[in-house]
Amino acid sequence: MARFAELRLAYTAETFITGAPYNSQDYWELTIRGLVVRLRPVSDAAQAGPTADGYNFLVSPGKDFPTVSDWLARLQATANSLKDALLAVHTQLGYAGLVGEVQTSYNQAGGNSAERCQSYVRIKNTRHGADLNFSAATFHTTYWSDAWKFSSYTITNIDPPTITIEQVKCLCFGGVTGSLHPTITGGVPPYAPIWNDGITQLERTNLPAGEYELLVQDNDAAGIIFENTEWGALTTNFTGETRMRVTLGQNTRVQVLIAATGTDVTLTATGGVGPYTYLWPDGSTLASRSGLAAGLYSVKITDALGCETTIEVRVQVSQLFFSRNPITLPLDAGDVYRANPAIKPNLSFICQVWLQDEAGEFALVGGELEQPAAQGRTTFQVQELLDPYLSAHVPAVGLAAFERASALFRRFYLQYAERYGDSPATGDITTLQEHTVLLGGLDFYEARTRTWFNSYQVGALAPFLTWQPNPRLVTLEQPEFLYALVPRELDNVQLRVLVHFDDGHFEERTVFTATDWKRHEVYCVPVGAQALGLQDEATRRLTKWTVWLSTEPDGDDPVTLTEFRDYLVDRRPPEHPRRYMLYQNSLGGMNTLAITGELQYEVEVSGEEAQLGLAADYDPLQGDVAVLDRELRPMLKFDTGLLPAADRLHLQEMLLSRRILFLHGGRWMPVVCKPKTVQLLVDGKARGVLELEFYLPRQRQFTPLLPVTAVGVLPTRVSDDYSPQLP
After folding, report:
1. What is the rounded CA–CA span in Å between residue 202 and residue 195?
2. Where does the pLDDT of residue 716 fall: very low under 50, low under 70, confident under 90, or very high at 90 and above?
3. Residue with more model confidence, 109 or 178
4. Burial of 143 by CB count in 10 Å (0-12 exposed, 13-18 middle, 19+ buried)?
């Protein structure tokens, strides 16, 4: 960039004493690299413009002082300001030493009507002849009320040095093999280079990646001298200088994505320069391995440049989590870091949650999480990111086949990495193997002890997703569902049923079959008598049935997969019509409650009204109130009928359930349990009745529950005794 000084002529009127305005006082402005110094000519003879030998200036204080005393009181500050301004010019224009010493002084002519304070500055160049000489200017005079006007003079000397820097970036990420090779042209040699880290050697080698700045000064002695007989002299040189900032690069970090599913692991390297080689502890050089034993493996990855990184691969069994219990990822930088935290400055951990969508693709949810490392450790909790993506599975009324409960579970995996450095960078990314999250949760004690996971679920026979007592007393028309989850992949799964009749005969049947059952997938299994095709026969009656799941691997004998569930036929005549409710339990499945007691249907009426102003000709049919809004909140009140103590205690699940459905008119109707105190158990009473209350959806319009008809079929006439509305 060019160095320059600019001299500008400006004029305006200034009042120095109270009373009539003083004649216009014209002055010069010296602008050097953005710094403005205002200087006044000594005499009219000098007003024709500066000469090659220099130019004398009278330094006067600023304008608009209301009194002479005020002007004199501020004179010293004005002189100091000029002194500081000249020192600033010296600092901006170069690095040469100060010649002489700047002093402040002033002369007072005396007399209240003609007080004048003035000092003289002589400006002249020191080199380059006409390049630094001021041009001639036309001097302007005007009265104080005129606007500001300027005439400008620009002096430009030779260009500063020019720098170009060739760089060789670091071969491996984090290495010290980079180098910088500057070339300097222009200016006045010899040059004085200095880097921002204090090194004065021009060539730089064995450097890490980062920001570097080079300052080069040349040997140019051109300058301007500010002379004053009272202050001495101040010389500022136009020493040529150039700064250049450069970013020394490096090849990207070799990063490895670890994808593990069960005992299968796939490594995918990126960054650096491919292709890549892999070396496992057993000597294998494969990027994908299968059938690995559980444990920790150290794998070295090398790119085409020889840059290495070593990762740890942990092989473990895919896990199942409940979305309403803590799902944690503990991370630890290790004892080596704790012994010397300086090896990973500003350490933090990042975590990403990847959730499988309906199409089977994994997508990032919740963005990237970052937590600082406390003593090299942290723990992420991610259950709140997963739970919103799950919902209850509602089986269709009349379901009579296996149904995959897709809304109830999702597969997910976690990615994590360390981030550290003065400018923090992300390290190798590790992907935990694919896991499954299931809508539901265990209670306060069980969530901590994990008995369900550690013993109950890992037994020889997998439990169904329910806590309901076994056996169950049910009617032949009662809808019943079991939800099954098995801990391994199966080619075929069969629902087996053992049917008992009152004549003592029994027979085993295969009712439903599912294929390609994946690990930790959840299926809804209808097990009511109607769904299974069970009924009384002409000469005998059904008394009970038992259900379980089994598989037949490669034509071998069937292998039982689940526990056995027994259903006893309830043939007691009900005192009131039986009604059925379906509610989601804490394990994600759906349980049925048969209601045999009395039911009441009530509505709470609410709304807004406004009083009408009655005119002389009002319409009496409108009444005296305008109805602005009306709303009904229907409520079901019923007692359950006599229930054993175990069944009553189990109904705590329904009181906690977030999804309850009431079967009415061949369809499910959503209801909400009203918060209230419910007496579940009384000592000494083996059987008892529960009184429950439920809210139905609010109504602002009424439509009767019309009979369900097939599309394109005209509804038949409703009989006279048909009552579609509740109860």
Report:
1. 8
2. low
3. 178
4. exposed
Instruction: Give the whole-angstrom CA distance, residue 145 versus residue 161.
Output: 47
Whether the CA torsion 365, 368, 372, 376 is positive or negative: it is: positive
Give the phi and the psi of residue 428 in degrees, each rounded to 5: -60, 140
> Could you tell me if 416 and 368 are in contact, meaning their C-beta atoms sit under 8 angstroms apart?
no
Q: Are strands 320-322 and 435-438 parallel, antiparallel or unpaired?
A: parallel
Report DSSP state, residue 553.
G
Written as six digits, the tokens of 411 are: 């597969």
3 state SS of 649: helix
What is the average pLDDT across 296-319? 84
Q: Is-contact 515 491, C-beta < 8 A?
A: yes
Question: Do the bridges between strand 35-41 and strand 178-185 make them parallel or antiparallel, or are there none, so unpaired?
Answer: unpaired
Closest Cα partner for 607 from 634, 631, 635, 633?
631
Q: Which residues contact 636 (CB under 8 A, 6 or more apart)?
A: 599, 600, 601, 662, 671, 693, 694, 696, 726, 727
Find out whether 372 and 378 touch, Cβ atoms under 8 Å.
Answer: yes
At 211-239, the pLDDT tens digits run 899 888 777 644 444 444 344 444 444 45
List alpha helices for 405-561, DSSP H: 444-449, 451, 529-532
Band the pLDDT of 86: cuts 50, 70, 90.
Answer: very low
Across the beta sheet with 241-248, the strand order is 192-195, 210-217, 241-248
Tokens of 562: 């689940």
* Residue in the structure block whose two tokens are 């997938």: 521
Reported pTM: 0.62
Which residues contact residue 720 at a Cβ distance below 8 angstroms, ignoring those fewer than 6 apart? none
Q: How far is 314 from 430, CA to CA, in rounded Å?
A: 10
- d(CA 301, CA 291) in angstroms, rounded, equals 21
Q: What is the C-alpha to C-alpha distance for residues 120 and 40, in angstroms, rounded to an integer?
A: 9
Q: Which residues contact 309 (CB under 8 A, 6 or more apart)?
A: 253, 254, 255, 256, 300, 301, 428
Across 262-294, the runs of DSSP E, i.e. the strands, are 264-270, 277-279, 288-289
Please give the Cα distance from 671 to 153 (Å, whole number).
89
For 589-623, the pLDDT digits (tens) are 999 999 998 889 999 999 999 998 888 888 889 89
Going along 409-540, which residue ranges are E strands?
A: 409-420, 425-426, 430-431, 435-438, 472-474, 481-485, 490-501, 506-517, 522-526
| Mean pLDDT taken over the chain | 75
Report yes or no: 660 and 591 within 8 Å, Cβ to Cβ. no
CA 537 and chain centroid, separation = 63
Write out the two tokens for 374.
């406390």
Distance separating alpha carbons of residues 385 and 368, to the nearest angstrom: 11
Backbone φ, ψ for residue 595 (5° rounding) = -105, 120
**β-strand partners of 348:** 372, 419
From 134, 123, 152, 124, select the one nearest 8 (Cα to Cα). 152
Q: How far is CA 659 from CA 388, 581, 664, 668, in A?
A: 14, 11, 16, 11
